[in-house]
Design a protein that fits this description.
With 219 residues, this protein is mostly beta strands. The protein has helices at residues 3-6, 9-24, and strands spanning 32-34, 37-39, 43-54, 58-65, 71-76, 106-107, 117-122, 128-136, 139-145, 158-161, 172-176, 193-197, 215-217. The chain is built from two helices and 13 strands. The strands form three sheets. Strands 3, 6, 7, 10, 11, 12 and 13 form a seven-stranded antiparallel sheet that branches. The protein has a four-stranded antiparallel sheet with strand order 5-4-8-9, with no helix packed on it. The radius of gyration is 23 Å and the shape is globular. This is DUF4114 domain-containing protein.
Length: 219
């Protein structure tokens, strides 16, 4: 028995049309903003603002293209903290965000970080992560990433206080804990380096709620 005698022609046409649609329909781009990675469906310009640091190291925050390995530094500390402190002093193991604790290596905009604002254009459908590269007495001590899979033992080194929606609604805080780098004592307070992402300026011509930031444009 021939195939066209077993299956009605209309059904064969429907199956063929369905297969054609699957083949020709482009895959939906995955938009992510968190510990699983950074990726946008459209070219996206995002602004960054340094909030404060509470860590003994002198650090640089930036973006890394996970497809090419290219790193772009965005915000750098000119010194580890506003005033010199002894790195061997025991940590209080507490989150000191916003309390201006001068005894926990406090660094503030305009002092430890002379240039607290930056921006970066994320290319559409490209995998990115944030990174924090740290130094002590001018010598590199390590680098950690916002994407867990890029860190040893897939260790979480950042907290995102909000998801992708928050970029257009006041911004998203990225809080770093540099415990993965050698320290006098281990702690997990996620206050070593804090950056606000988005929420500073919106693009008036954009109706996309993800336009956080400054602008969202199609290629």
């Amino acid at each position: 028995m021939k195939l066209n005698q077993m299956i009605p022609p209309a059904l064969i046409s429907a199956i063929a049309l369905g297969l054609f649609s699957i083949i020709t329909t482009p895959l939906q781009a995955l938009e992510t903003f968190g510990n699983e990675g950074i990726q946008f469906e459209l070219d996206t310009i995002i602004e960054f603002e340094f909030v404060e640091s509470n860590g003994a190291f002198q650090s640089t925050f930036g973006v890394i293209n996970l497809d090419t390995g290219e790193k772009t530094p965005l915000i750098s500390e000119a010194k580890p903290s506003n005033k010199p402190q002894d790195i061997s002093r025991p940590s209080d193991f507490q989150d000191d965000t916003g309390v201006s604790n001068q005894n926990d290596f406090l660094g503030t905009p305009g002092d430890a970080v002379p240039q607290p604002l930056a921006e970066f254009k994320f290319q559409a459908n490209t995998r990115y992560a944030f990174y924090l590269e740290s130094f002590y007495n001018g010598k590199p001590v390590g680098i950690i990433y916002s994407t867990n899979t890029e860190n040893p033992n897939t260790r979480q080194q950042t907290e995102f206080n909000g998801g992708i929606d928050s970029l257009a609604k006041g911004g998203n805080l990225i809080r770093w804990d540099d415990t993965g780098i050698v320290k006098a004592q281990q702690e997990r307070d996620f206050d070593d380096f804090i950056v606000r992402v988005g929420g500073h300026q919106t693009c008036p011509s954009s109706s996309n709620v993800f336009a956080s930031v400054k602008c969202l444009t199609q290629n």
